[in-house]
Design a protein that fits this description.
The protein has about 700 residues and is of the alpha+beta class. The strands form seven sheets. A six-stranded antiparallel sheet has the order 18-19-17-20-21-22. The protein is globular, with a radius of gyration of 29 Å. The model has no long low-confidence stretch (mean pLDDT about 90).
C-alpha cells in the first residue's frame, strides 16, 4: 500500500503506513512508460520511430505490444517506450509529436501525474492500511519577516513570534506528533518557513526525511470564462501536504471522504487533495480503460458525427426547467430524482462508444434526437454504477447510525462520491475530457427532459399543481377542491416508468419563488422556504447564499425571512429592515461583519475602471501582498463616493464603513425577500420613508 511516493533528486521513495508507523523503501528499477501508435502514418513509420527512440540515452527499452487506441477500436500494434525518469515521458512525447508530419504519430499514457502514474504502472494501491493522522499548521504566509514571524500555530499550539524560538518549536511539534498529513492554510506557509530558515542558516525539517521541494509553480487559468488561480505546490518527504487554499475535496468533504476517493481512483492522497472533480473522475475512467486494454490518449480527438440542422437545433439544449410561478405558495412538496444524470447513463447505457454506434444505426433510441444506443454494455455505466450503489449503501447506513464519529466519516464519503456523480454529466461535454463525447452530453439531456415532462404530466393527473421544476427536482402543491393521489404512490409509478428512483425530498410550510430584478418573470434558481416541522429554512440563489455578500447583510436577510415566517406581513419585515439600516447609520456594526469578498479576474494594472476591487488590490499591494488573478480579496467599503484606494479598507484595517452603501445592500436583500409578495424596492423605500416621517413628527 504505497500511501505516498516521493520523487527527490532522481530517486523514487515509496512510503507505506502500518499500525507500527510509516516505512519507506527506495525503488531502484522504476521506468515510467508511454506508448506510440500510428495516426496517419503506416507500420514502417512506426518502426522508424521505435528505432530512433532506441538511440536516446534516456530510453531504457522499447517493445511492441497490442493495445486498443480507443473504445471503438480493435487492438493494434503500439510501441511501448520505457524511460529513465518521469520528466522524460512528456519531453519525448513532445519531440515525437514535432518530428513527424501532423497526425503521423499518436502518443498515449503521457500526461499522468507522477504518483498516480507510479501506482498505475506498478499495480500499487495508494490507500493507507490504517487511519491517517493529521496536524494543522495555521498562519498567514505573506507576513513573514526576518525579525518576526506572524502569529503561527501548529496543532493548536502557538509557537512564538521570534524566529529563533518559532522555527525549533514548529519542528519539535511536528516531530513529536509525527503526522501522516500536514494540513496548512497555504502551502506557501511551508515555503516561507523554509525560506526564513535558509536565511537564518537553520536546518528545518518538516518531513520524515530532510528535504523540501516545489512540485509546481503558481498559475492562472480560465475555465468557462471564469479566471482561476492555482497556488504553487510543495512537498516534504514522507508526509502528505494538504493546502487549504488549493483543495476542493478536503474542504467539501473530510479526510475520510478523500481516502474513500483514493481507493476508488487510485490517485494518492497528496495528488487527490489538489485535484479537481474532473481530474479524479478521469483517474477512475483511466483505470477502467486500462482494464479493457484501452490506452489513454494524450490529446483528446473526437470529431462529432454528422448531424442534420434539425438535429443540431434539437440537441443543443440543456435539461428542462419550468418557469416558476412567482408567489408565496403554501403546503409545497419537493420531489427529486436520485442522481438523475448518473442513473440515466447507467439505465440507458449512455457511453461514448455506444451512442450512435454503427451496429444499430437504423434505431432511434434517444427521444427527440433520433440517436441509437448499442445494446452492449458501455464502459461509462460500469464506471458509475459502483459509485451509485456505494452511495446508496452509505446513505442507508447514515440513516441508521447514531455514532457521531461514524456519521462524520459516512457523510464525508457520501459527499465525495456525490461530487463525482454531479460532474460526470458535464464532463462528457468538456472539450478536454479524455473520454468525453458531446453526443453523450446531448443524449443525457434528452432523456432528462423527457423524464421531467412525463413526471409533470403524471403528477398533474394525480391532481397536484406543479409550481416549479429544475432538471431533476419538481415542486407541487395540492389543487383546491379535489382529492389528490398519494405522492408516494405517484413516485413509485414514475420510478417504475423512468427506471430511476423519484424520492420525496421535503415538505414546506411555504416556498417563495423570486422574480427577476427587472421583470415579473420568475428567476429560475432563486427561492426560499420554511421546512415543515423543522426550525429551519432553505435558501437558494438569494444574497445570503452568494459568496460576495457580507456576513451582516446575509444575516439580516435570514432574519427577514424568519420574521416573514412568523408574521406573514411585509410591513413587519420592513420594520426589521429599518432597524438594520439604523444600526448601520449609528455605527453599531463591526466592520469585520461587512467584509465583501471579490474574485480578482486580472492584474491590478489591467483594470480600466477604478472599481472597489481595484482599490482593494492597490491597498493589498501597499502591504506587500500580490493578489493574483483567480484569487480573492476581502475588503470593507469605507467611502463609496471616492474613486481612490480610500474607497475601501482591507479587512482588519477598517475603522469605519460607508453606512449608506451597506444600507443599499440591505434594501436589495430585502427586495429578494418581499418581491414574491409584490413589494419591490420602491414599495420598501416608500414604507421606510413613511415610518421615518412618522417618527420625526412624533418627536
Amino acid at each position: 500500500m504505497a500511501y505516498k511516493i516521493d520523487f527527490f533528486d532522481g530517486e523514487v521513495v515509496e512510503w507505506t503506513l502500518t499500525e507500527e508507523g510509516a516505512t519507506s523503501e527506495r525503488v531502484q528499477d522504476y521506468t515510467p512508460t508511454f506508448y506510440v501508435g500510428r495516426g496517419e502514418g503506416d507500420e514502417q513509420s512506426l518502426a522508424d520511430a521505435q528505432a530512433t527512440l532506441d538511440q536516446f540515452l534516456t530510453v531504457a527499452r522499447t517493445s511492441v505490444e497490442e493495445w486498443r487506441p480507443g473504445f471503438r477500436h480493435d487492438a493494434e500494434a503500439m510501441v511501448r517506450v520505457d524511460v529513465t525518469t518521469v520528466e522524460e515521458v512528456s519531453r519525448l512525447a513532445r519531440w515525437l509529436h514535432e518530428r513527424g508530419d501532423p497526425g503521423e504519430y499518436r502518443c498515449f499514457n503521457v500526461d499522468f501525474s507522477r504518483e498516480f502514474r507510479y501506482c498505475l504502472e506498478t499495480g500499487r494501491s495508494p490507500a493507507p492500511e490504517r487511519r491517517v493522522s493529521t496536524l494543522a499548521i495555521e498562519g498567514r504566509a505573506h507576513e513573514f519577516e526576518d525579525e518576526e514571524v506572524p502569529a503561527l500555530s501548529v496543532g493548536g499550539e502557538r509557537v512564538g513570534r521570534s524566529p529563533d524560538r518559532a522555527l525549533p518549536r514548529v519542528e519539535e511539534i511536528v516531530a513529536r506528533e509525527d503526522p501522516d498529513v500536514l494540513v496548512v492554510d497555504s502551502a506557501k506557509l511551508l515555503a516561507e518557513l523554509h525560506s526564513l530558515a535558509d536565511r537564518l542558516r537553520y536546518d528545518l525539517q518538516l518531513g520524515r526525511r530532510p528535504g523540501f521541494q516545489q512540485l509546481a509553480r503558481e498559475s492562472t487559468y480560465t475555465s468557462y470564462g471564469r479566471v482561476g488561480h492555482s497556488p504553487a505546490r510543495y512537498n516534504v518527504p514522507g508526509r502528505v501536504v494538504i493546502d487549504r487554499s488549493n483543495t476542493f475535496f478536503y474542504d467539501e468533504t473530510n479526510i475520510a471522504g478523500c481516502i474513500d476517493l483514493v481507493r476508488r481512483s487510485g490517485k494518492p492522497l497528496q495528488e487527490l487533495s489538489w485535484a479537481s472533480i474532473g481530474n479524479v473522475l478521469t483517474a477512475i475512467q483511466i483505470r477502467e480503460a486500462l482494464s479493457r486494454d484501452v490506452l489513454v490518449p494524450w490529446q483528446a480527438w473526437r470529431p462529432e458525427q454528422f448531424k442534420t440542422m434539425r438535429q443540431l437545433n434539437d440537441a443543443d439544449r440543456g435539461g428542462f426547467t419550468f418557469s416558476p410561478n412567482v408567489d408565496v405558495h403554501d403546503d409545497v412538496h419537493e420531489l427529486d430524482f436520485s442522481s438523475l444524470y448518473p442513473n440515466i447513463i447507467c439505465e440507458y447505457n449512455v457511453s461514448p462508444e455506444k451512442v450512435r454506434c454503427n451496429c444499430h444505426s437504423e434505431r432511434e433510441d434517444v427521444p427527440g434526437l433520433g440517436y441509437c444506443i448499442c445494446d452492449k454494455r458501455g464502459y461509462l455505466p460500469d464506471v458509475l454504477q459502483p459509485l451509485i450503489n456505494a452511495r446508496d449503501d452509505i446513505k442507508a447506513e447514515i440513516r441508521e447510525t447514531d455514532d457521531e464519529e461514524r456519521l462524520a466519516e459516512l457523510e464525508g464519503r457520501s459527499d465525495a462520491i456525490k461530487w463525482i456523480l454531479v460532474s460526470c454529466f458535464g464532463y462528457q461535454g468538456f472539450s478536454n475530457a479524455k473520454f468525453g463525447r458531446i453526443e453523450c452530453h446531448e443524449t443525457i439531456n434528452a432523456f432528462a427532459r423527457e423524464i421531467l415532462l412525463d413526471t409533470k404530466e403524471r403528477l398533474e393527473d394525480g391532481e397536484w399543481r406543479v409550481v416549479h421544476g429544475i432538471v431533476d427536482s419538481i415542486w407541487v402543491t395540492p389543487r383546491e377542491g379535489v382529492e389528490q393521489k398519494s405522492l408516494d404512490a405517484l413516485a413509485e409509478e414514475i420510478t417504475a416508468e423512468a427506471g430511476i428512483r423519484l424520492e420525496y425530498e421535503a415538505e414546506y410550510d411555504w416556498v417563495a419563488f423570486v422574480p427577476l430584478r427587472d421583470s415579473e418573470a420568475g428567476a429560475l434558481t432563486k427561492y426560499f422556504g420554511s421546512v415543515a416541522d423543522e426550525d429551519e429554512f432553505k435558501f437558494r440563489g438569494i444574497e445570503c447564499r452568494q459568496r460576495s455578500t457580507s456576513p451582516f447583510v446575509a444575516e439580516v436577510q435570514r432574519e427577514l425571512i424568519a420574521v416573514y415566517d412568523e408574521h406573514r406581513s411585509p410591513e413587519t419585515v420592513c420594520d426589521r429592515v429599518g432597524a438594520a439600516v439604523r444600526r448601520l447609520r449609528d455605527g453599531d456594526v463591526d466592520p469585520k461583519d461587512l467584509a465583501v469578498t471579490s474574485r480578482v479576474s486580472k492584474h491590478v494594472e489591467e483594470y480600466r475602471h477604478s472599481t472597489r476591487t481595484v482599490a482593494a488590490l492597490k491597498s493589498a499591494a501597499d502591504e506587500g501582498r500580490d493578489v493574483r488573478p483567480g484569487q480573492s480579496v476581502e475588503y470593507v467599503v469605507a467611502d463609496d463616493a471616492k474613486s481612490s484606494r480610500g474607497r475601501v479598507a482591507l479587512v482588519g484595517e477598517a475603522e469605519g464603513y460607508d453606512a449608506e452603501y451597506y444600507a443599499e445592500q440591505v434594501i436589495c436583500a430585502a427586495e429578494s425577500v418581499l418581491s414574491p409578495l409584490g413589494w419591490r424596492e420602491r414599495e420598501i423605500r416608500g414604507y421606510l420613508a413613511e415610518r421615518e416621517d412618522a417618527n420625526l413628527n412624533r418627536y
